[in-house]
Amino acid sequence: MAEALQQLVLTALDTNGTILDTRELVLPGQTKPATSSEDQIVILGALNSLLSREMISYETHEVISHDLTPEGQQIAREGSHEARVWDKLPEKGKGAPITPVELKGLVGDETAKVGQGRAFKNGWIGKEGNGLVKLVTEISDTTKDDIQEIASTGTLKSGEKVLADLRKRKLIVQRKGQWFTVNKGPHFSTSTAKPETDLTADMLTSGAWKTATFKKYNFDAEGVPPSGGALHPLLKVREEIRNIFLEMGFAEMPTSSFVESGFWCFDALFVPQQHPARDLQDTFYLSDPQKALSPEPEYYKRVSTVHEHGGFGSIGYRAPWSHEESSKLLLRTHTTASSAHMLYKLAAKCRGPENDDGFRPAKLFSIDRVFRNETMDATHLAEFHQVEGVVADRGLTLADLIGFMRAFFKKMGIDKVRFKPAYNPYTEPSLEIFAFHPMLNKWVEIGNSGMFRPEMLEPMGFPKDVRVHGWGLSLERPTMIRYGINNIRTLVGHKVPIDNIENSPAVMF
Ligand code: PHE
Fold first, then answer.
1. pLDDT by residue (tens digit) across 479-488?
2. In whole angstroms, what is the distance from residue 64 CA to residue 401 CA?
3. Would you say the pTM of this structure is higher than 0.80?
4. What EC number(s) are associated with this protein in UniProt (predicted)?
């Protein structure tokens, strides 16, 4: 039916150029024009389908139309009550008059009651004795005619007064209806073949694309929400920071080993073996296995010597060296442990011939997880991520470090930075980094930095004129600021709402 109706509309348009009034169409399988509102609803379906393919355009017209009530339908079929009463009576003087009781038996209570009154009023019937007879030999049943006209056209030519009367008599009800004017659309064709959704290789080779109708692309369609994974805000910020480092020519360090030894996490960095950071209260130690493999013996010896007795211009800590402390296994407390491994590898290449000591400048970075035995609160967890940059070159100065950091933080959108002298066991000088927080309207500490000490670099084997500087910050801090999070537990851990993760926007510095 839908297909046939669409075809009918297209054919009508093709022959006449336009359809002025859809009420004049004769629907497939019918004999009379589609004047009823049901018909127009069916037509509207077909029009909308053709419109979506831009084969037609149409205009809607509103009409008030009328439907028959069940009583109205009966009148359309059998005539008005008064006509039915008249019909049953004998002509005056030509037979026995019919009593009202008999009439009820012939036409039913309702028709007898209503019909008698109206037939009397019309002068169609009269009394004879205590019975009823016809007074006229012919009647014209205008009610039936009017009702039939309404049934086929939805309205009456004779006008609103009669309609109002029929409404009052509950023979018809008023209803809003629609009809349409139809014109050809930009993709008019007499074929209702389904529009193509894709341009295929077959269509190109056969040339079918030339005549094909294509379905219009719906740019407003919402699309299917992906049910796959979503990146965590920390990972998004990590990616941004990683890109900043890569842009600045840094290479990423391998940071996969969460477990380090006391040697690599502290000793190699010239952190005294008695330093409070190495306490159980601050560092997680492993119970199984407890001991690390020994580092390369000669390097190990140089490190232990510089701690115990000094060297390379340093007096050392002059405290007894503990191999046990050095070989403890722990969860790394900073990614500078990974930097130490990488710097040692870099220094190991510095064994070239006389005129080339083998040193090559390096810019390295890492962003990974570290662990500290912290009391947890809204801003501290026992594990977090560190961002760390390390630069090694001959003759670097503190100004180079400051310059690097300014450039780096500027790329993160932080223009105002300040540096404050600080203490780190492995750097001298050391600087704390402060940034101006426009929302808090104050300076906040964002990181830590410094020039690595000769006591750390020279035992590794770096030439004396090679300077290495570095800086570090947490990944959580800028992430929380970026996403306006004030409790770290809504960012990391089992209390994180999954839809927060799924809906968190991408971040760009
Ligand atoms: N490791 C330092 C920290 O945990 C950061 C840092 C890295 C400082 C490199 C100086 C040089 O805060």
1. 888 888 888 8
2. 84
3. no
4. 6.1.1.20
